[in-house]
UniProtKB/TrEMBL annotation:
Residues 140-242 form the Fe2OG dioxygenase domain. Keywords: Dioxygenase, Iron, Metal-binding, Oxidoreductase. It comes from Sclerurus mexicanus (tawny-throated leaftosser). The gene is Ogfod3. GO terms for cellular component: membrane. This is OGFD3 protein. InterPro entries: OGFOD3, Oxoglu/Fe-dep_dioxygenase_dom, Pro_4_hyd_alph, Pro_4_hyd_alph_FE2OG_OXY.
Amino acid sequence: DGVTEVLAHRSDNLPEKFVQIPCSQDYDGHRRFEGCTPRKCGRGVTDAIVTREEAERIRRIAERGLSLGGSDGGASILDLHSGALSLGKHFVNLYRYFGDKIHDIFTEEDFALYRDVRQRIQRRIAQVFGISSSSMYLTKPTFFSRMNSTEAKTTHDEYWHPHVDKVTYGSFDYTSLLYLSDYTQDFGGGRFVFLDADSNKTVEPRAGRVSFFTSGSENLHRVEKVRWGTRFAITISFTCDPEHGIGDP
């Protein structure tokens, strides 16, 4: 894979680390929103805005939701916004499938914590990139992921391919990941890798760590295959286009 540099070790406790990089031209093909569309691009990591305890509470939300389904392959998703849940080789709508029983699975406190953490991440991204937090909108897909070493059964299970979020999902302008488990303690492999021309930069997941970046080709990335254990994370995505905004679950 060429040279690999570690941007954030699991053992680091980073108040904040930010690397600015030139923006790609991906944003030019979309409508620009002044004061929000990236003009400053880059990637950051912080361990200072979500506590380990909060990450564990959020992981339990993911575990409860995913216990209702789960993919036959190694990658399962739960989207609290749309209700999409991996089940076997397909997806079901959690809210339609389980109806009122949902109240036994998730509490108001769960949704309040989710919303609070999402707002903190949104404010931090806005601050780092010098934009207004109120000009950013949550967008889809925003989802929990659970990855293990089970062999892929469908293309949805193949999470390890390099990709660019802005190319895959046109609405994305800023992407963030909140890690809910620990590299080398809960799972092996599964590091997040930025693929740069000169070298790869990796982020080692740690519960409560937030990794965030502008969504264009300047941040081509992939996730390594998980070799053992279970890796939990939540992807929280933002757009500058109000037409692509979604509400909190």
